Amino acid sequence: MRVSNVTVRKRVALVLMVGILIFLIIDIRLGYVQFLLGGGLTDKAMDSWSRKVPFEAQRGEIVDRNGVALATNISSPTVYAVPRQIVDADATAEKLAAALNMSKDKALKHITKSAVIERIPEGRKISHSKAKEIRALNLKGIYIGEDSKRHYPFGSYLSHVLGFTGIDNQGLMGLELYYDKELKGTKGSVEFYANAKGQRMEDMADDYEPPVDGLDLKLTIDNKVQTIVERELDIAEAKYNPDGIIAIAMDPNTGEILAMSSRPTFEPDNFRNVPQEVYNRNLPVWSTYEPGSTFKIITLAAALEEGKVDLEHDHFHDSGHVKVGGARLRCWKRGGHGSQSFLEVVQNSCNPGFVELGQRLGKEKLFKYISDFGFGQKTGIDLQGEGRGIMFNMNRVGPVEHATTAFGQGVSVTPIQQVTAVAAAVNGGILYTPYIAKELIDPKTGEVVMKKSPVAKRRVISEETSEQIRHALESVVAQGTGKNAFVESYRVGGKTGTAQKAKDGRYLENNHIVSFIGFAPADDPQLVVYVAVDNPKGTIQFGGVVAAPIVGNIMEDSLHALGVKPRKNQIEKELALYESPKIEIPDLVGMTKNELRQQMVNLKLEIDGNGDTVVKQAPSPGVKVKEGSTVKVYMYNKD
Question: What is the pLDDT of residues 328-352, one digit of tens each?
């Protein structure tokens, strides 16, 4: 059948129009892809080509209040493999295994994985010399990424507070965990490009995305005070071989923790070398135990605030025991202290005297003050694992429980609760929230991102009551059971504590926690120090014998380190039979050699210079020293 020319032309025109339409659609689609989707598709393509070698962010440093680094970082490279780029897997595995001290089979398993990029576990956080050695092998597909590991330059110093990090620099314990989000920063990377076969595309430049370092954490800790505390705990541990030791130093006017330590301790760099219970328990905030006589400060504060006692004029007769609710509660001194003022009751730490104060207060009042001082609740310190302590249920407090609570037996408290409460008792009556982190700082700009300020919870007692407590506790150190904490030229106050340890509902024999809590200067407290020694061996287990001297040593050196000036009007220390009175150094400036010889009868003299007149001396005038001590004078001729 013959088709007409008209029909042919129509069909050709139709095909032409369809063709034009198809090409138009393709053209539009190509334009759409090219101009509208091009950027996105290119990015997707580059993503499929890209390989990232991660660069870890620097974890923020932890520093003391003066900027001394307590936790820092050491650069520590890590080995990565891009399996598709490896040409000779067998040879590469052999060389890599030798360099990293691993088996060839294990190395081969890592570098032949189907992963885009593989981190070699045995090559994590290696030394720079080892990284240089691996680079020198020039192994295709093997890369060195920048990494770091945490380092604690002072070893076991402040270990329970600082905590430690894991292999990925993640915080696992202590402040490292509590402030992990702020310290860890954000990872960066070096990005290179490879084709479908995994071969590097040399014509495309690498992209570097820098990591964002973590924030630095400045603490309230004072490195000088912490060092003194660590030294004294080391000495005590060697001397007494105790089951444990706890120490806290605090600024009573702010709640800032100046030092905190405990034994047994560990090195954060090697925490795996000790049992979990050693590094997992920060004893100053975690442990709970009967406080013993240090708790009497709370009973004293309540009785004074409520006007239930006049320390100078009220008297009490101690026969050595008191009967309460059918129970016979004894004083620590066999036969008792006899007739004494209530100031002497405090000085002598007389249990029956404090039972009397508790009874004068009544159960409700006594336990109200105990609660107001923060016992039975967390202090809110920014450390994990804080305990609450254990208080009697008021419905179960009978006459005996009421009496024993008044002198610190039968209740359970934490060390940080005791320090916080006593700080309130001596600072003028304000209970503060203790804290240990002071600021978060941007390491690049120096900008303070977060700053903590003292938080006053409430007023517990009046300034007048606090002043009476300071005087009473200063007399405890000068004339009572706390004499071993006495510091010449500083007005130190404090209280001893000796508490029996209980097990399976019964008190243990010859196994006590002995403690002392002290503060200074008594007229304007700048420092509160608490030390508790658990079951000291080879000694009489009394707080005044074991813990008081430790606190005295910490107090003396710390006050000097903090720049606190000596005080006048110190209560004279009541000397023991074996003690001789100290000599007050006279003012020697301006004296000649002949005049010096007349003055220095009981003291040794060291002269520096060839002059005729003293222009300077050390120690300063008014300082009291032991007989036979050396005084250095500087003698020059006056112009």
Answer: 998 888 888 999 999 999 999 999 9
